[in-house]
Amino acid sequence: xxxxxxxxxxxxxxxxxxxxxxxxxxxxxxxxxxxxxxxxxxxxxxxxxxxxxxxxxxxxxxxxxxxxxxxxxxxxxxxxxxxxxxxxxxxxxxxxxxxxxxxxxxxxxxxxxxxxxxxxxxxxxxxxxxxxxxxxxxxxxxxxxxxxxxxxxxxxxxxxxxxxxxxxxxxxxxxxxxxxxxxxxxxxxxxxxxxxxxxxxxxxxxxxxxxxxxxxxxxxxxxxxxxxxxxxxxxxxxxxxxxxxxxxxxxxxxxxxxxxxxxxxxxxxxxxxxxxx
Length: 277
Known about the structure:
It is built from 9 helices and 8 strands. It has helices at 16-26, 40-53, 68-84, 101-118, 135-144, 154-161, 169-178, 203-222, 253-267; strands at 2-8, 31-34, 56-61, 89-92, 122-125, 150-152, 179-183, 227-231. 44% of the residues lie in helices and 14% in strands. The model has no long low-confidence stretch (mean pLDDT 96). By secondary structure, it is α/β, with parallel strands linked by helices. The chain has a single domain (2-267), classed as Divalent-metal-dependent TIM barrel enzymes (TIM Barrel), CATH 3.20.20. An 8-stranded parallel beta barrel has the order 1-2-3-4-5-6-7-8, surrounded by 6 helices. The radius of gyration is 18 Å and the shape is globular. The longest helix is centred in the C-terminal third of the chain and has 20 residues, at 203-222.
């Protein structure tokens, strides 16, 4: 099985599309996870650069907005636009944590219909503020929508739970069985992002998160799946920790994401030849 590593656009958009994609390519990523440009000219530029640089594409849908009725409309538009670019998959920030299960469920159904009609896989990110914002609530959706698939960013569940999800093993297993894409950020009980994964004080968190990701890899291996996609997603400020009184970041988030890519290549076991070459 091959693991392909994508780099999130988050914090790099100031470079412009061309500068961002060249930076991502030079750092050894296989692709980019980025928004679908609204302008046709920008979409054509994105497609051209992806082809020239031999990078693959995941679309991050996060722009759907408004009250529920308007949200449904913009959600359809955004997913349709994303699917038109023929990405590997669409990672969607879906719904609201305060909407009812019926309302968020309608969005899950809309996404399933668009996936069926376009052939582009759509996954829902486990993210604060969205419908799968914590483990107990997500379990209710897993039970009701067994075909629904997720992008697993378990850092959000950790901070909402204020724990490393001890006692919620059944829900973790349900999430692992439904994961189609991983956001490899490491959270802790009091926040969604540890200060620096290279620092030894975070060894426990790194071990726990790596074990969850390995279980996804193991499942893909058991299912004879050829490819798993992972996006290391340590973010810039305000996710990055800052030096008091200066507002300056303590670390370079891009360097950390490159480190995480290389760390996972060396620590996720993908078969008899692991670590992955």
